[in-house]
Amino acid sequence: MTVYNRTRAKAQDWAAEYGGRIAPSPCEAAAHADIVFACVGNDADLRSVTLGESGAFAGMKSGAVFVDHTTASAQIARDLYAAARAQGLHFIDAPVSGGQAGAVNGALTVMCGGDAAPFDAVLPVVQSYARAVTLLGASGAGQLAKMVNQISIAGLLQGLAEALAFGRRAGLDMPRVLDVIGKGAAQSWQMDNRGKTMLAAEFDFGFAVDWMRKDLGLVLDEARRNGAQLPVTALVDQFYAEVQAQGGQRWDTSSLIQRLKA
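and the corresponding structure tokens:
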């Protein structure tokens, strides 16, 4: 395996631990590979590591597959799919869900868009670090599915934050309440994994507020294009802006409860 990171020290640390080799550019990292995986920050970052003389596409051999795990726009996925096809390559948009724990434990959920044949070719490799990998449609479908995921999480976390704040105000033993209602219809992954840490104001793990705001920006941009009405999502996005203003840019997304503290 050959790796490239825009922060070279991170690639060096990886190579020292795992014994792979590092390359000085995406182009050189992608040379001779059957499959190239990437995960960067946003649309602009993705263009920078794929296109141009030093981009991965320039180094990939004909028929190779580029799998993008970045959470980005559906449009950049479609654009890069077209650019890859023009060069005899394949492109799969494959954003992930599961957070840091999912990545560390090889239990990510991967939502994919693209063509069936290259998806089938990369599936066994992706399954080595994911528990669910699904092709959902044409190019861009993976990114749109990730937007659905983020809309769902934003609403769930806000509801959970309000419920915990209400229960605490009411004088309830909230850890015990969570144990009870977590066995009923209110149960969710967020309740099981974040409820008690929210009560303890522990936010030094998981998915950062800055990243969630980036993702919700993509969601709201797409909603303006397709006409979807997302009043709760837009409101929660503003609540996250308040958390950022409190210094919580790198807090876990469950930190929404900090807005509701007495």
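(Above: one complete record from the training split.) Residues 14 and 67 are 20 Å apart (CA to CA).
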